[in-house]
Each structure stands twice: as C-alpha cells, then as structure tokens.
C-alpha cells in the first residue's frame, strides 16, 4: 500500500462527486457575498501604524546586527517543505495549503520562512560567500489551522537566519535580537530555552521517551498513542490534561546530551547570563518542526499566564542545508517572530503608536488658484524636510479646512483668487489660528523655518517674525482662536471670493 501522500493534490477518481461538493460549498457562501477566506483578514488603514511600527523595529534590529533583507516567493515546490519541515509534522501533514497547478507541479504556499531562505542560500551558491550569511525576511505565511482567536491562516512573520556558523555566540545573539524586538515595542517577555541536541543524542532521548510513554500508554489521549511510534517528541506538546500530567515525570533531554551538545548549550546559557536576559530553562520545549537541532527557544509575554501563544521562537538547524541539497554539513540558526500576535499584544496592552502627522496642508479657492496650487504641490512634496497633503478634489475652502483639521496638520497654506493676483500665499497656523500673507516664492523656505522652530518646541508667534510680511489678508483677520469661528470667517471669505 502506498504511503499516505502528504501533498493535498485533491486528485479524485470521481469528478462528479467533487463537483457536487463544490456547489454545496458555493451555495453556503453565496449569502455572504464576497468576503475574505476563512481565517484570513484585511489589515485596514487605521491599523497599519501598529504594523508599520513592528516592521520598523524589525528593520532596525536587522541593521543593528548585520542581517540583510531577502524576499523569497510565497509559492514554492511543495517538497521543499515536506523535506525540510518533515512530513510527520502537523504543519506539513494537515496545515499546508498545497495544490497541483495547471502545469502539473505540486506547489505550496509557504507555511514558514526558514526552508525558503535555505533553498535560496543553496540555489545562489552562497556556500561560497563569507560565512555566516545572515538574512532578514518579512512577509505572509500560510497554514490551514483550525480557526481560533489569535490565529490566522494567512499570518505574518519577520525572521532572521544566520547560515554557515556553529558558534554558540550566534545562538545567544539571535535570542537577544528577538527579545530586543519585543522590548523595543514595549512588550515584556520571558525566553524559554532548551537544547534538543544533535541527531545522535536526540535518538537516544527519543528511545528513552518511547520507553517511558509506553508504560503510560493507557492514560494517553488518542493522538498521543499514535505519536509514540510516529513522532515521540510531539508527545511533549500535547495540551490534554492527562498527557500533561504524564509529561511531568518524563525523561528530560538535557540528561541525554553528548559532551559537544552539552558544551554548546552551556556556552549559549553563559552568554544569556552575561547579557542579563530573562530566560528560563524549559526542558520540554521541543517546537513543532523536524529540522531543529541543539538550541531552541520561544518568547512568551510575561502576562500570558495561560501559555496560549508564543510571540516568536527559533533555534539551530544544523542539518537542514544538507537535507535540502547542500553539498556539505552547514550549521545554521534562526528565529521568527509572529507579527499578528505582537500587534495583538500591543493593542491589548494599550501600547501607543503615534500616528504619523502631516505637517502642511495645501488649500485652494477658485480654478486659477487650484491650478497654481497643484503645480506648487509638486515642488513642496519633494522638499524632503516636511510632509504635505491636499484635497484638490474639493472646491469648498471650508471642506478643505475641515480635512486639514482632521489631519491635525501644523500649517495650512491657502491660495485664493486674490493671492494668485498679487503673487502671495496665506500661511495659517492651525493651532494658534494666526494667519499671515507671505511672498509666494518664499513659501518653501518659510515653511521649513517655521517647522524647525515648531519641532524645537518653541512658541511660534507668526506676528513677530522678522522677515514676515505682517499685512493680514484683507478678508481674513488673524488672532482668532476658535476653529469654528475661523471656519465661519473662511466661509465668508469663500463666498466673497466666489461672488
Ligand atoms: Zn549531540
Ligand atoms: Zn496527548
């Protein structure tokens, strides 16, 4: 009998039956119209600042420790993952989005990042570069998991991989990098660390595990009963209470490490101590993927008492390069952080992420002014020292000022008919409500100067400026503090100008 094929190609002998099944699904969904696929979601504009913050921190960490960005395709040949992650793992066996494409290739949406990076390392001959080669990646991953809170079928990770070096300082530094990322985002975390040894010592440990669990098999859950023969390490991950109880007395991997693996692990721990990182030894942490060797670690928020979702984790994977077709044994170590979970944690803890504020809004009144403003905008947006926005699709000055207020810009520049005529522009301080008329050609310089002062925290009194033309517009007087009043005034101006 052929082994159960891991890749879900959905080749069926009964196309008719399949068609029926599909139609049933379709009717079920049609009521809901077009919505996101189960377990997937949109990340809306108003939430982006959290994501942007996480990306910015990840990028900064990559720079601080010399990891270079790599982007690999979302779609890969499925056997990259079956070979890399292991066909007996949940990720490959149950959760991979795998299919056969029109050309007959078995493909999969990447369920994790490491295998792809290693594939790229081999494919592009980076074994010949100075080692280690250090990569940084960021992007979506896909797993067909049971939908539950905090887990998505398209989820995002950023990660770091250092390939071609076995020095334990590298393990410790990667552990530090993940912890730093969380810390920089305001999340307090504890690191769980373990070593699962090399292939050799792990074999000894597996034997001990099997021996122990066989004596307890009557009390194990159904999944664990099959795990004894299929994937004994996974016995330690079981969430069933009865299995958790049995785990307490299970043999611990640390007692089975050979001298080299023990020495490596003690050095890693020594560096963590030196760096004063908050870690705990976690003898039963094994992580779900087959490729790990020696050091493994996970990050847990200090307030995640239920131990539901690790915020990230990683480990050493000294045999993966060879498994995926590399010429020689190539040690490597990496980590990946779950961006969705990190963002959720930031929101849960009310960690504030400042909205990016626009500095200057360009408003216009009348067609000639609109044309002039559109041209000026092209100059202003390239100035490099302040940010600009506009609403040229609006004709009403009142509406434009409402938009500017909503954006909480610091300054609005206004061009009306009068200003077009005499080559001036009105500059309005949105907080103080003070307005002044200045030379159109000096606008960029004036804005720069004022924003510099603004950023220094100085009180800006536009009426006292040395070079300022203090003549107020004939229609709009300065010194009005209430926005409503300002807008009414502007509205009056608008009517006046349009007449
Ligand atoms: Zn070993
Ligand atoms: Zn179990």
UniProtKB/TrEMBL annotation:
This is Histidine--tRNA ligase. Its main location: cytoplasm. Signal peptide: none annotated. CDD domains: HisRS-like_core. It comes from Candidatus Buchananbacteria bacterium CG10_big_fil_rev_8_21_14_0_10_33_19. Homodimer. Belongs to the class-II aminoacyl-tRNA synthetase family. L-histidine binds at residues 112-114, 143, 157, 161, 287, 291-292. HAMAP family: His_tRNA_synth. Keywords: Aminoacyl-tRNA synthetase, ATP-binding, Cytoplasm, Ligase, Nucleotide-binding, Protein biosynthesis. Gene3D superfamilies: Anticodon-binding domain (3.40.50.800), Bira Bifunctional Protein, Domain 2 (3.30.930.10). One of its GO terms (biological process) is histidyl-tRNA aminoacylation. Residues 10-24 have a biased composition (Basic and acidic residues). Its EC number is 6.1.1.21. GO terms for molecular function: ATP binding; histidine-tRNA ligase activity. It catalyses: tRNA(His) + L-histidine + ATP = L-histidyl-tRNA(His) + AMP + diphosphate + H(+).
């Amino acid at each position: 009998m052929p082994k159960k094929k891991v890749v879900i190609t959905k080749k069926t002998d009964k196309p008719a039956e399949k068609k029926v099944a599909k139609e049933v699904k379709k009717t079920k969904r049609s009521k809901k119209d077009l919505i996101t696929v189960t377990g997937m979601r949109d990340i809306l504009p108003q939430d982006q600042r959290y994501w942007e913050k996480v990306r910015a921190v990840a990028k900064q960490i990559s720079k601080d420790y010399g990891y270079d960005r790599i982007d690999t395709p979302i779609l890969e040949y499925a056997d990259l993952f079956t070979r890399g992650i292991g066909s007996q793992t949940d990720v490959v066996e149950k959760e991979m989005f795998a299919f056969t494409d029109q050309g007959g290739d078995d493909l999969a949406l990447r369920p994790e990042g490491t295998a792809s990076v290693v594939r790229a390392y081999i494919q592009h001959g980076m074994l010949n570069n100075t080692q280690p080669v250090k990569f940084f990646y960021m992007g979506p991953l896909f797993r067909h998991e049971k939908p539950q809170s905090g887990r998505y079928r398209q989820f995002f990770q950023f990660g770091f991989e250092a390939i071609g070096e076995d020095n334990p300082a590298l393990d410790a530094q990667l552990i530090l990098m993940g912890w730093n990322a969380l810390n920089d985002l305001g999340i307090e975390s504890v690191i769980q660390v373990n070593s699962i040894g090399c292939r050799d010592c792990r074999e000894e440990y597996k034997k001990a595990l099997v021996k122990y669990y066989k004596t307890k098999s009557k009390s194990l859950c159904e999944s664990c009963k099959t795990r004894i023969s299929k994937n004994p390490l996974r016995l330690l991950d079981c969430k069933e209470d009865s299995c958790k109880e049995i785990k307490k007395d299970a043999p611990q991997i640390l007692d089975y490490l050979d001298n080299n693996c023990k020495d490596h692990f003690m050095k890693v721990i020594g560096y963590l101590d030196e760096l004063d990182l908050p870690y705990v030894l976690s003898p039963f942490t094994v992580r779900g993927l087959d490729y790990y060797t020696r050091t493994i670690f996970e990050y847990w928020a200090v307030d995640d008492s239920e131990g539901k979702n690790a915020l990230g984790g990683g480990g050493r994977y000294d045999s993966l390069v060879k498994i995926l077709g590399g010429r020689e044994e190539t040690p490597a170590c990496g980590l990946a952080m779950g961006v969705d979970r990190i963002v959720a944690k930031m929101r849960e803890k009310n960690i504030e992420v400042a909205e990016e504020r626009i500095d200057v809004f360009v408003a216009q009144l009348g067609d000639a002014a609109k044309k002039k403003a559109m041209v000026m905008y092209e100059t202003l947006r390239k100035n490099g020292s302040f940010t600009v926005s506009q609403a040229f699709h609006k004709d009403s000055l009142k509406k434009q000022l409402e938009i500017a207020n909503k954006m909480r810009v610091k300054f609005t520049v206004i061009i009306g008919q009068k200003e077009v005529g005499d080559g001036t522009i009105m500059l309005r301080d949105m907080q103080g409500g003070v307005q002044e008329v200045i030379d159109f050609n000096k606008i960029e310089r004036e804005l720069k100067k004022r924003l510099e002062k603004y950023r220094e925290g100085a009180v800006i009194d536009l009426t006292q400026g040395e070079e300022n033309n203090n003549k107020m517009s004939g229609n709009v007087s300065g010194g009005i503090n209430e926005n409503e009043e300002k807008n009414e005034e502007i509205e009056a101006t608008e009517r006046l100008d349009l007449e």
